[in-house]
Amino acid sequence: MSCPMPAPPALKDLPKVAGDLKSELEAFKATNLKNADTQEKIVLPSAEDVAAEKNEKALIQGIEHFEKTKLKHTETQEKNPLPDKEVVLQEKTHQNLLGGVEHFDKTTMKHTTTTEKVVLPDSEVIQLEKGQRQLISGIENFDSSKLKHAETCEKNPLPTKEIIDQEKSA
Q1: From CA 26, how far away is CA 20, in angstroms rounded?
Q2: Number of H-type helices and E-type strands within the chain
Q3: For every one of its 170 residues, what pLDDT tens digit does the chain have, with 9 covering 90 and above?
Q4: Distance of CA 165 to CAs 156, 157, 158, 159, 169, Å?
Q5: Maximum CA pair distance of the chain?
Q6: Is the pTM for the entire model greater than 0.85?
Q7: CA geometry: angle at 24 spanning 21 and 26, to 5°?
């Protein structure tokens, strides 16, 4: 049984094409096209990739079709190594210390009162600190505008070149 071909659409149902586009399409010549080489960008896998894929497939197939009847029954032995004497002794000592601290009888302790002594500096030290603070504030707040201008006169001038040459020659 063959399927009947659908009837072609009527002219009125076809999409309308703009006049200028229609004239361009009718005037188009295939000879105006430039020749171009096509480059296929499908990269084939290398021989290494194919070999790796075959290897992986074989491995997966081996796992899927593995026969469990070929396995041998084994007994699992759980080994729990016991600690040596030193570790046991350390643990006992640690447990005894913790037990002694946790179960300590506080009633056997003697009552004591703590006295806090606040040592204040004597008046002599306080006066020294006040004097130092006044000295520092005097330096920081010094008004340099109260200073008088003074001329400096050299009392020990340096020797001139001629004097040095005379002393060398003498």
Answers
A1: 10
A2: 5, 0
A3: 556 677 777 777 777 777 788 788 888 888 888 888 888 777 888 899 999 999 999 999 988 888 888 888 888 888 877 888 999 999 999 999 999 888 888 888 888 988 888 888 888 999 999 999 999 998 888 888 888 888 888 777 788 889 899 988 87
A4: 19, 17, 14, 10, 6
A5: 143
A6: no
A7: 110
